[in-house]
């Protein structure tokens, strides 16, 4: 993977793409830090307008300090959106694939992550390991990630909206099971969902901060113990534990960390919309979300290309 030394990172790319068409342009960013950055692209493949736009954006930055690729990304990305419009990776093989497809890479000195643009939405559900398996397997894995994306974003909100506002959509036996499971729970369903989801997020964050030999173990054991104790105390229903667990597991299948954080945020939004307006709120929220994503561009390329034409 990439390291913090700029010249080692450029050498890693040159060791994988051995062609004189691979261009590395150096540029300084930050009036005080004078951070060394490099724009990498293949001169015979990359669009000249794309390269010129990258130069313009980097040279127009007027801040005192740029120390990481995350800071630089926020300064040069198109517009404002919670969803990232540039892809960040620490793997030279993935950057090489993007360069060969006509993208540009921006390497920041002192940072082991490299930014790539332009990217589309589908790049965020593509894992670097997909390059190393046969194409049918890779497509199946990407399909599973798309399904997981919908589960992670919509499942808790749909559960609240359906049980609270549209019980007629649930099969009778399942509805009786849900009613029996929630009979002893003293809290309203939206509060129960938020309580469980926030609890899961707390356990996930704790597992990240705890030293790695114990983090995963404590996260799994803590989730089981807390969930079992909450069900035994009639604070939540068993079905709610299943919904939270499926949502959490589905969120882990998203390969990109920034995209995963975006999904975790909008899940709260869909829970609130489903609690207030039912399925109408879920549909309205999905419509507004897609309308926003369809307007995004990444260095002039539509974010949902080729679905959304230029």
Topology, please?
Layout lengths: L5 H11 L5 E8 L5 E8 L5 H12 L9 H8 L10 E3 L2 H9 L3 E5 L5 E4 L17 H31 L6 H10 L7 H21 L2 H21 L5 H14 L5 H21 L1 H17 L1 E2 L2 E2 L8
Antiparallel strand pairs: 1-2, 2-4, 3-5, 4-5, 6-7
Structure description:
With 310 residues, the protein is an alpha+beta fold. The chain is built from eleven helices and seven strands. The protein has helices at 6-16, 48-59, 69-76, 92-100, 135-165, 172-181, 189-209, 212-232, 238-251, 257-277, 279-295; strands at residues 22-29, 35-42, 87-89, 104-108, 114-117, 297-298, 301-302. The strands form two sheets. The chain has a five-stranded antiparallel sheet with strand order 1-2-4-5-3, with helices on both faces. A two-stranded antiparallel ribbon has the order 6-7. Helix 7 packs across helix 9 and helix 10 (257-277) packs antiparallel against helix 11. The longest helix is centred in the middle third of the chain and has 31 residues, at 135-165. The protein is elongated, with a radius of gyration of 23 Å. The two termini are 34 Å apart.
Can I get a quick summary?
Helix content is 56%, strand content 10%. It is of the alpha+beta class and 310 residues long. The model has no long low-confidence stretch (mean pLDDT 88).
Low-confidence stretches: none
The spatial strand order of the largest sheet comes to 1-2-4-5-3
Which value, in Å, is the CA radius of gyration?
A: 23 Å
Order of helices and strands: HEEHHEHEEHHHHHHHEE
The percent of residues in helical segments reads 55-70%
- Gap from first CA to last CA: 34 Å
């Amino acid at each position: 993977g990439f390291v913090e030394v700029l010249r080692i990172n450029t050498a890693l790319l040159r060791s994988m793409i051995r062609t004189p068409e691979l261009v590395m342009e150096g540029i300084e960013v930050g009036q005080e830090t004078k951070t060394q950055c490099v724009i990498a692209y293949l001169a015979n493949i990359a669009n000249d307008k794309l390269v010129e736009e990258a130069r313009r954006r980097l040279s127009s930055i007027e801040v005192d300090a740029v120390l990481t690729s995350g800071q630089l990304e926020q300064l040069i990305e198109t517009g404002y959106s919670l969803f990232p419009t540039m892809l960040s990776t620490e793997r030279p093989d993935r950057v090489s694939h993007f360069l060969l497809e006509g993208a540009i890479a921006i390497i920041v000195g002192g940072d082991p992550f490299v930014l790539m643009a332009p990217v589309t939405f589908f790049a965020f559900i593509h894992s670097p390991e997909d390059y190393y398996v046969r194409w049918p397997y890779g497509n199946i894995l990407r399909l599973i990630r798309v399904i997981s994306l919908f589960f992670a974003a919509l499942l808790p909100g749909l559960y609240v909206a359906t049980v609270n506002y549209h019980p007629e959509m649930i099969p009778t036996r399942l509805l009786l099971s849900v009613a029996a499971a929630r009979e002893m729970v003293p809290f309203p369903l939206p509060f129960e969902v938020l309580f469980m989801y926030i609890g899961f997020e707390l356990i996930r964050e704790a597992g990240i901060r705890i030293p790695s030999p114990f983090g995963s173990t404590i996260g799994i054991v803590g989730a089981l113990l807390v969930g079992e104790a909450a069900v035994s105390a009639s604070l939540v229903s068993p079905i709610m534990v299943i919904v939270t667990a499926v949502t959490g597991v589905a969120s882990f299948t998203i390969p990109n960390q920034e995209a995963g954080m975006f999904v975790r945020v909008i899940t709260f939004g869909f829970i609130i919309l489903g609690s207030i307006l039912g399925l109408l709120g879920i549909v309205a929220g999905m419509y507004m979300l897609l309308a926003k994503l369809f307007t995004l561009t990444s260095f002039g390329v539509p974010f949902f290309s080729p679905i959304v034409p230029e």
